[in-house]
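Allow me, if you will, to draw on your knowledge of protein folds for a short while. I have a record of one protein: its chain in single-letter code and its fold written as discrete structure tokens. Kindly check, if you would, that the fold set down in the tokens agrees with what the sequence suggests. Thank you for your consideration; the sequence and its tokens are set out here:
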Amino acid sequence: MTEAARFIFYNHEDGIEKFPSEVEIMGSFEWKEYEFDENLMYYVVRFKSADPVFKSKGWMRMLIGAYHTGSIPTSYNLVGLDDHYTDFETWDNKTFNEHVTDFQNFLREKHQKNIDEIFYDYIPIFDKKNNTIALISFISSFFLVLVSDWFIIPVILAPIWLLLKYFQAKKIKKNVRTRIRGYYLDYFWFNEGEYIDLQSIAEVKFEKKVLAKQDRFLFLPLKKWHFVFYDYGQEVIFSIPRHYIEAEYFFPIFKSRIAHFVNKPKITFEESV
């Protein structure tokens, strides 16, 4: 711990590239960090410098962390968070608890972006392959009209089908959104909007299910592939149609957000998607 304090003071951007003359460990506190899905240990330290620039300040405060709890704090026990901090505040200006509160506010502000930052945000859009399908159907049927008048039906239906598909896509675009926000999954679906903590997801499966009424094209109760999110009681949290998520972008981001969780959600379908 002393070596860590010496290193922090020596390399501080507002420092003097000299080691502190004295270092004392004053206590510690635990802090919940969602990225690691566990309480982490932080140490409150005070230090002195004999250099004239800092000598008049006497004892100054410093935060060192984060470390895994229940282990001796060493460079090997340090987790991947560089939360070392000092503002050269004089130690005697505040009580120990006040210093802890200040350090907790520092941690809260520093890691707030991990809670609120948008990492993935997708609104389903009109699939342009529908244009291709309609065009092929129209052209092929148009020439087949020369063989039989019955082929006039698909010639007429192709643009109607495309128009209906377009209006369906507009409705979905207006009412559906999927988002990874910090350590939460947001799913906005028509008049419902819910979010869940990523830590509450036990498993994600790829299942064929009947579309909900609002998701159906021409009210047809077709079975489509869904990404189904389960909690630890095997209850369905979200059942999201495949075309509401860009799987190739969503799941790499999803996995990066849960990478440090002790209990990671099980993703069982990746080989089949």
